[in-house]
Amino acid sequence: MKLTTSTNLNLYTFFFTIFTLLSLFVVQAAPTADVEKRDVFVPPILSPKQGDVWKSGQTREVTWDVSNPPAQITNGIGRIMLRKGNLSTPLILAANFDILKGKIKVKVPLVIDGDDYSLVLFGDSGNFSPPFTIDSGYPF
Fold first, then answer.
1. Residues near 71 by Cβ (< 8 Å), separated by ≥ 6?
2. So what's the pLDDT on residue 102?
3. How many domains does the chain have?
4. Which of 27, 106, 109, 115 is placed for a possible disulfide with 133 were both Cys, Cβ 3.0 to 4.6 Å?
5. Range of the domain at 3
6. 3-class SS at 28?
7. Is residue 87 within 8 Å of 97, Cβ to Cβ?
């Protein structure tokens, strides 16, 4: 029996199709690692609250609600950053603290006066405080 080019092409197509189908079964049957359970903790910030006025240079206490933490927190190391309007600033007010502590003292930075500041509390995720005012005491 003499094989022609079209016969060879049909054989290649047949074997390629069989190989592809078998590969799909192997991939579907491969065991996968169990997904680790991860709980994201997003404690609401209690202070500062809307209407608060902070003065530059003061030491103020930031507080958040830790009454209902999950059993396993993905990242329990906290960081607090200042936000102005819709933009996070590069100002880190506190870092490397236990997120379950529920409070930490920060020094209010010297910034331009504004009533649209908020804090971002990072641990598992970032959540924002309500907007509050910072008064620098300087006429910028």
1. 39
2. 96
3. 2
4. 115
5. 1-32
6. helix
7. no
Please tell me whether the overall predicted TM-score, pTM, comes out greater than 0.90 for this model.
no
What pLDDT is attached to residue 68?
86
pLDDT of res. 114: 96
Shared domain for 55 and 26, answered yes or no, is: no
User: 78 with 99, same domain?
Assistant: yes
Do the bridges between strand 53-55 and strand 114-122 make them parallel or antiparallel, or are there none, so unpaired? unpaired
Cβ contacts of 109 within 8 Å, gap of 6 or more:
56, 82, 91, 93, 134
CB atoms within 10 A of CB 78: 21
Q: What is the mean pLDDT of each run of 10 residues along the chain (140 residues)?
A: 59 61 55 57 93 98 93 88 93 96 97 96 86 90
